[in-house]
Amino acid sequence: MELAKIFAANQTNLVLAARSEAKLIELKNELAHYKVNILVVALDLSQPEAAISLFDYCNSKQLQIDYLINNAGFGDYGMFVSGNWNKQEEMIRLNIQTLTHLTHLFLPSMVKRKYGRIMNVASTAAFQPGPLMSVYYATKAYVLSFSEAIASELEGTGVSVTALCPGPTESGFQNAAAMNESKIVKGRKLPTSKEVAEYAYKSMMKGKVVAIHGFLNALLATAIRFTPRFLVRKMVRVIQDK
Fold first, then answer.
1. Strand partners of residue 18
2. CA-closest candidate to residue 139, choices 152, 151, 129, 149
3. pLDDT tens digits for range 159-184
4. Could you give the domains of the chain?
5. Most buried of the four, 113, 154, 162, 223, by CB within 10 Å?
6. Which residues of the chain have pLDDT under 70?
7. Catalytic residue among 34, 77, 136, 142
8. What pLDDT shows up at residue 53?
9. Gap between the Cα atoms of 3 and 69, Å rounded
10. Dihedral (C-alpha) 212, 1, 147, 170: value to the nearest 10 degrees?
11. Distances from the Cα of 102 to the Cαs of 46, 61, 71, 153, 195, in angstroms?
């Protein structure tokens, strides 16, 4: 939502895709005063054919997509052994498969035009294993590695790829992941979605490859590389616990 506001304020036409058509229309109406064209697509991006459906929709409208923001994703909290498999599978499809497929679909036309920006929303979770959120952390590690790799492949093409790595952020994520009681978020003053979105937009427009929001988050992501793996696992388990 906050990213949509920033793009609209910068006079960028929008295609907004998410599950709730009512919320999308509400956001479209909220952004009407910016006088940009806004199309809404009610679509569950965790479904296998979602990426091709969105791509076909854009082609049917003869739209030129200059910016692709792969922002949709969710997490789950708890022991993997007792977790709901359907939810884990849906998370993998949304956080990994749809993100990768959308990138593959929209990237060729950007390269052909020699201009484009792609932002894949990873997380500070990407830098280490995450006991109690094992699949989520693993999906974000994929997003970071994938984004860095194709950013290298695209050097000199006029197209950039940014992996946005926010830490815990004030949004609906914690409720959806049922992790409000974990030490990593409980009682903490978290940055707002607006603050993270503003940082993300600037980083993407500059073509920054890995964008870690917040000095402390960047420091921790760097420090982890010099910490023994067994200690990293123990530390993450402690802060993730209730």
1. 42
2. 129
3. 999 999 999 888 765 565 555 565 55
4. 65-240 (3.40.50.720)
5. 162
6. 172-188
7. 136
8. 98
9. 9
10. 30
11. 12, 17, 11, 17, 26
| 220-to-134, 154, 198, 215 alpha-carbon distances in Å | 19, 28, 22, 9
- What is the DSSP-derived secondary structure letter of residue 191? P
Ordered alpha helix ranges (H), the chain: 2-9, 21-30, 50-60, 85-92, 99-113, 134-153, 173-177, 193-206, 215-223, 229-240
- Nearest by Cα to 115 from 37, 209, 205, 200: 205
Residue 46 identity (one-letter amino acid): S
Q: How many CB atoms lie within 10 A of CB 5?
A: 18
pLDDT digits (tens, 9 = 90+) for 214-240: 888 888 888 888 888 888 888 888 888
Burial of 30 (C-beta count, 10 Å sphere; 0-12/13-18/19+): middle
Burial class (CB in 10 A: 0-12, 13-18, 19+), 22: exposed
Query: Distances in Å between the alpha carbon of 239 and those of 78, 175, 199?
Result: 13, 17, 25
The torsion angles phi and psi of 146, rounded to 5 degrees, stand at -60, -45
Active site residue 136: yes
Task: Please report, for residues 66, 73, 90, 157, 202, the alpha-carbon distance to residue 121 in angstroms, rounded to integers and kept in the order given.
Answer: 17, 8, 17, 22, 14
**211, 165 in Cβ contact below 8 A?**
yes
